[in-house]
Specification:
This protein has 320 residues and is mainly α. Helices cover 76% and strands 0% of the residues.
């Protein structure tokens, strides 16, 4: 049992390498990973969310909602900065209409559950991250189509009920169950806390393998420019989120959550919307597929940096 714990602890500490290796193998040897069906993704996300719930207490959420400033500014930032960054980068690099649609869809989608995981691995404010993701996702059936329509002059059909039940089933229910287990079976929760980051990394890696292997041809056929745009879009979100956190004078744990939440998008949703909305141009789904891989890699790197940054505000930069 100790050996298994050490393996998971090792994986948790080396997320960037694990994610990069998984993405590379599933891209160039996609046939070996097609067994990880896309239908498994939700179950893997639920496992991750349950694990995070084990580290939370009900008081954490009460504290967050008693100070809604962060959530309000987080929502405004999410639905202004990322869409306009997407639009600006698309025009700057003169993307064709199909790829522009895909990039903008990434920008107008809410933050994904991966942001909660990276915040957790970064020792950030997980409760704030989960609350921002939940609020932004619940608003997305209205805001995502409207913003996309304004920017593309096209309508994106979304199902309010589907998205609502999705956020409940995949995020809220597992987290609530985890909080309940933590409350009534604290000893059990405490024992597995050390291996939870490793389990989360394994689950993320399986999700990436599924996304990449099933979209390998589209990803390989995309030009270098779209990779550059995805990287710039993601990193700019991290930087702007960090700066806003400092301007709002948030503590270090909240600033980490803010930075990660703004920079990471629900790119899986973006790819799905692109396929449903623009069936005649399958390349519109490419930005979402690439973002799904890249933001987990960049998030893993950012988590390694943020983990070294104290949460007591004694230092305003990561320890060297």
């Amino acid at each position: 049992m100790n050996k298994i714990n050490k393996i998971f602890e090792f994986i948790g500490k080396h997320m960037a390498i694990t994610v990069l290796a998984t993405a590379s193998f599933s891209l160039f040897f996609s046939n070996g990973f097609l067994w990880i069906k896309t239908s498994y993704i939700n179950y893997l996300l639920m496992l991750i969310m349950f694990g995070m719930g084990l580290t939370l207490k009900s008081d954490d959420f009460i504290l967050v909602f008693s100070h809604p400033k962060e959530i309000i500014f987080g929502t405004i930032s999410q639905y202004t900065l990322m869409p306009f960054l997407a639009l600006g980068l698309s025009y700057l690099f003169h993307l064709d209409s199909a790829l522009t649609a895909g990039v903008i869809l990434v920008g107008t989608c809410p933050g994904g559950t991966a942001s909660n995981v990276i915040t957790y691995l970064s020792k950030g404010d997980v409760a704030l991250s989960v609350c921002m993701t939940s609020v932004n996702t619940l608003l997305s059936p209205v805001l995502t189509p409207i913003i996309t329509c304004l920017m593309l002059k096209a309508t994106v059909e979304t199902s309010v009920l589907t998205m609502f039940t999705g956020i409940i089933n995949v995020i809220l229910v597992p987290i609530i169950l985890g909080v309940i287990v933590n409350k009534f079976f604290f000893g059990f929760a405490k024992k597995i806390t050390k291996v939870l980051p490793g389990i989360s990394v394994v689950a993320i890696s399986l999700i990436i393998a599924s996304v990449v292997s099933h979209n390998s041809e589209k990803i390989l056929s995309a030009g270098a420019i779209i990779f550059l745009i995805v990287i710039l879009h993601n990193i700019s979100g991290y930087i702007f989120g960090f700066c806003i956190g400092r301007l709002l004078k948030l503590n270090n744990a909240k600033t980490k959550a803010f930075s990660i939440e703004i920079g990471m998008q629900n790119s899986g949703l973006a790819a799905s919307l692109a396929n449903a909305t623009f069936p005649a141009t399958p390349e519109a789904a490419v930005p979402g597929a690439i973002f799904s891989v890249w933001h987990n890699i960049s998030g893993a790197i950012l988590a390694a940096i943020y983990r070294r940054w104290d949460n007591d505000n004694k230092s305003n930069c990561p320890n060297k």
